[in-house]
């Protein structure tokens, strides 16, 4: 079987909230279930998160019509509160999330290894949509 290796993908957003609030909303299951979806016809009915080095996480992402769902999860390899999260997903792909404290706002830079099944732009768009949902949720709650 031939595998294709792609360069990591980076997305980002600036959230108009202090880093402590951004960190809390990023990591609290009660908030994750409110923002972790790429479109309005999907939702996250379940989330469990232990945001520490060696901790694990799992979020169920599901179509609202019940036609499909999957678990997104992994293990944290490096966590620095309010600054950095690095983890490996269940399939071994790596993700790095940097939280840059800018006073009244926080810049989030997320870099992830793409999978080989879907086009790169589709993956970038999906992850960016989830990050944009996070931004909206955090700024309005």
From TrEMBL:
<dbReference type="Pfam" id="PF08327">
    <property type="entry name" value="AHSA1"/>
</dbReference>
<dbReference type="InterPro" id="IPR023393">
    <property type="entry name" value="START-like_dom_sf"/>
</dbReference>
<protein>
    <submittedName>
        <fullName>SRPBCC domain-containing protein</fullName>
    </submittedName>
</protein>
<dbReference type="InterPro" id="IPR013538">
    <property type="entry name" value="ASHA1/2-like_C"/>
</dbReference>
<comment type="similarity">
    <text>Belongs to the AHA1 family.</text>
</comment>
<feature type="domain" description="Activator of Hsp90 ATPase homologue 1/2-like C-terminal">
    <location>
        <begin position="16"/>
        <end position="137"/>
    </location>
</feature>
């Amino acid at each position: 079987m031939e595998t294709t290796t792609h360069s990591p993908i980076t997305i980002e957003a600036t959230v108009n909230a202090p880093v402590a609030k951004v960190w809390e909303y990023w990591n609290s299951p009660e908030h994750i279930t409110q923002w972790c979806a790429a479109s309005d016809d999907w939702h996250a009915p379940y989330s469990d998160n232990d945001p520490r080095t060696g901790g694990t996480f799992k979020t169920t992402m599901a179509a609202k019509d019940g036609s499909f769902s999957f678990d997104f999860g992994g293990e944290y390899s490096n966590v620095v509160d309010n600054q950095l999260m690095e983890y490996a997903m269940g399939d071994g792909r790596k993700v790095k999330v940097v939280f840059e404290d800018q006073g009244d706002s926080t810049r989030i830079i997320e870099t992830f290894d793409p999978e080989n099944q879907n086009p790169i732009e589709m993956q970038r768009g999906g992850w960016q949509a989830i990050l944009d949902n996070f931004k909206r949720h955090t700024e309005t709650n």
